[in-house]
Specification:
This protein has 8 helices and 23 strands. By secondary structure, it is of the alpha+beta class. The protein has 2 domains: 178 residues, Super Roll (Bactericidal permeability-increasing protein, domain 1), CATH 3.15.10.10; 260 residues, Bactericidal permeability-increasing protein, domain 2 (Super Roll), CATH 3.15.20.10.
C-alpha cells in the first residue's frame, strides 16, 4: 500500500496538449525517489512471495538404472531477497526499475518411479540465486485524465538453481538434479514478469485517488490537472499542474493568466511544491464571482466592551445629522468587494490589496433599512501563509486603509472622523471571519493517505515554495 501511493505520486505524469503556464509546480528529488524505491522493494518482495510454482513432472535416463519418472509437487516459497535494486529516471522518457543478486528459497515434495515398479518419495529444498529483473514503466492518460501505468520490456533471469533432496532414494535424484534445476528455474522465470506487470497495474487503483479536482467548500473547487508533459532529468521529476480555483459547476477562466516561474535547485527534501500568485488570485476571482466576499456587520458582532457601538447615537457623534434624522436606531454595515482582491508574493511577504464599499444603514422599527452613506474603502493586509496538515492555510493582519466618501444620503461630513471606528470594525469583525475561512486551508495535491513531514515554507517572488518529506500510512 505504501509503495503504491508513493509510486502513484512518482508517476503522476499526464502528458497534456495544452502549453499554458502552470499555477502549481511539483518536484520529486533523488531523496524522494530513493524513499519510493525502499517502499517499492518491500511491496515487490511480498508480491514475489505469492509465486505459484506449478507441479513439474517428467522422465530422464539415469545410468545404470535407465528411465526414471519423477514429479515435484506442493512447492512453496519460504524466503526471498532483493538486496540490490535501483530506480533510475530516464531523461525525457520515464522510470526504469532494475533488481540484481536476488534469491529465492522454496521447498516441496518429490516422487519417483523406476525399474517399472520401484517407487519412492521425499522432500526437497531449492535455492535460486542470481535473480535479475529489469522493467520500464510506461505512462499514459486514462479516460478520466488521470495517469495510468503499465510494465513494458520486462526481463527476468535466474542465474542458478540448486536442488537438494531429502528422504528415500534421494541419492538417485541427486544424479539428475541438473535436469530438475533447469525445469524449476524456467518455471520461476515465467512467473516473475507477469507478477511485476500485475504489481504495476495495481498502482492504477491508487492513481485514481489523485485529487485532480478537489472540492474546497460550497463555492469553490481546485483543479490539479497537468498542463504539459513532465520534465524528467537524471535526478528529479518536475510536474506542471493547472493549480486553478473554479466555481463549482462552472469553470470560468479569470481575466488573467499564470506567469511562468521555475523552482530553484533544492535537494534537502523529498518533495517540493510551488504555488503561484495566479493560484491565489484565481481563488479571489472565484469567491468574488460567487458573492462570498461581502459581509454584513451588526452590533452583536462587536465586543461588548468596545466604546464603539453600531447605532445612530455612536455614529451621530461623528456625523450629527444621523443622530438627528434617525434617533435611537441600531445600524448595519455592508462591506462588499467592488473588484477582485489582488494578491502579490514578494520575498518573505504576501500582500492583499482590496477595494470595497461600506454601506451604512439605519434599521427602522419595522426592520426596513434606510441607507445613510456609502464609503469607498481601499485596504492592504499582510498574510501569514503556513502548512496545516495536507492544506495550505493563511491568516491576515491589517496594514492600512483609506476611506473616501462615495455617496451620502445625510449631507456632507468628514470621512476621516470615521477612520478609527471603521478600523476597529475591520479588526474585530471582518478580519477574524476572514481568518476563520483562510485557516481551514486549501488542499495540496495528494494521493491516498499521504502525510507531509518537516514541511518548510518560503515566500519567493510570485510563488510560495513548500519543501517537505513524505510518509504514507495505512
Amino acid at each position: 500500500m505504501l509503495l503504491r501511493c508513493w509510486l502513484a505520486l512518482l508517476v503522476a505524469l499526464i502528458p497534456a496538449a495544452s502549453s499554458t503556464n502552470a499555477g502549481v509546480k511539483v518536484r520529486l528529488t533523488e531523496k524522494g525517489i530513493e524513499y519510493g524505491k525502499l517502499l517499492g522493494m518491500a511491496v515487490l518482495q511480498t508480491k514475489l512471495k505469492s509465486i505459484k510454482v506449478p507441479d513439474i513432472s517428467g522422465s530422464e535416463s539415469v545410468s545404470p538404472i535407465g528411465k526414471v519418472q519423477y514429479s515435484l509437487t506442493n512447492m512453496q516459497i519460504t524466503n526471498i531477497g532483493l538486496p540490490k535494486s535501483e530506480v533510475d529516471l530516464v531523461p525525457g522518457s520515464g522510470v526504469k526499475l532494475s533488481i540484481g543478486d536476488g534469491y529465492i528459497s522454496l521447498n516441496g515434495n518429490w516422487r519417483v518411479k523406476y525399474l517399472r515398479f520401484i517407487k519412492d518419495s521425499g522432500s526437497f529444498d531449492l535455492s535460486v540465486n542470481g535473480l535479475t529483473i529489469t522493467t520500464s514503466i510506461a505512462i499514459k492518460s486514462d479516460e478520466t485524465g488521470r495517469p495510468a501505468v503499465s510494465s513494458v520490456n520486462c526481463a527476468a533471469t535466474v542465474g542458478s538453481a540448486k536442488v537438494k533432496f531429502h528422504g528415500g532414494a534421494s541419492w538417485l535424484y541427486n544424479l539428475f538434479g541438473s535436469f530438475i534445476d533447469d525445469a524449476l528455474r524456467n518455471a520461476l522465470q515465467k512467473q516473475i514478469c507477469p507478477l511485476v506487470a500485475n504489481t504495476v497495474s495495481d498502482f492504477n487503483t491508487h492513481l485514481k485517488t489523485l485529487n485532480v479536482v478537489a472540492k474546497v467548500d460550497k463555492y469553490a473547487e481546485f483543479e490539479y490537472s497537468m498542463v504539459s508533459s513532465p520534465i524528467i532529468s537524471n535526478s528529479s521529476i518536475d510536474l506542471s499542474l493547472k493549480g486553478e480555483f473554479y466555481n463549482i459547476g462552472k469553470h470560468q477562466e479569470p481575466p488573467f493568466s499564470p506567469k511562468a516561474f521555475s523552482l530553484p535547485p533544492q535537494i534537502n527534501s523529498m518533495l517540493y511544491i510551488g504555488m503561484s500568485a495566479f493560484t491565489a488570485n484565481s481563488a479571489a476571482f472565484v469567491y468574488d464571482k460567487a458573492g462570498a466576499l461581502s459581509l454584513y456587520i451588526t452590533d452583536d458582532m462587536i465586543p461588548k466592551g468596545s466604546p464603539f457601538r453600531l447605532n445612530t447615537k455612536t455614529i451621530g457623534t461623528f456625523i450629527p445629522q444621523i443622530a438627528q434624522k434617525f434617533p435611537g436606531l441600531m445600524m448595519k454595515l455592508l462591506v462588499k468587494m467592488v473588484k477582485n482582491p489582488i494578491i502579490t508574493f514578494e520575498p518573505n511577504n504576501v500582500t492583499i490589496q482590496a477595494t470595497a464599499t461600506v454601506t451604512a444603514y439605519a434599521i427602522q422599527p419595522n426592520s426596513t433599512l434606510s441607507p445613510l452613506f456609502v464609503l469607498n474603502l481601499d485596504t492592504s493586509v499582510s498574510a501569514n501563509v503556513f502548512v496545516s496538515g495536507m492544506k495550505l492555510a493563511a491568516s491576515v493582519t491589517l496594514n492600512k486603509m483609506d476611506l473616501t466618501l462615495g455617496t451620502s444620503y445625510v449631507g456632507q461630513f468628514q470621512v476621516r472622523s470615521l477612520d478609527n471606528m471603521l478600523q476597529m470594525f475591520l479588526k474585530v469583525v471582518v478580519i477574524p471571519q476572514l481568518n476563520a475561512k483562510l485557516g481551514k486551508g486549501y488542499p495540496l495535491p495528494t494521493i491516498g493517505k499521504m502525510k507531509l513531514v518537516n514541511a518548510q515554507l518560503q515566500i519567493l517572488k510570485d510563488y510560495v515554495l513548500i519543501g517537505t518529506d513524505v510518509q504514507f500510512t495505512g
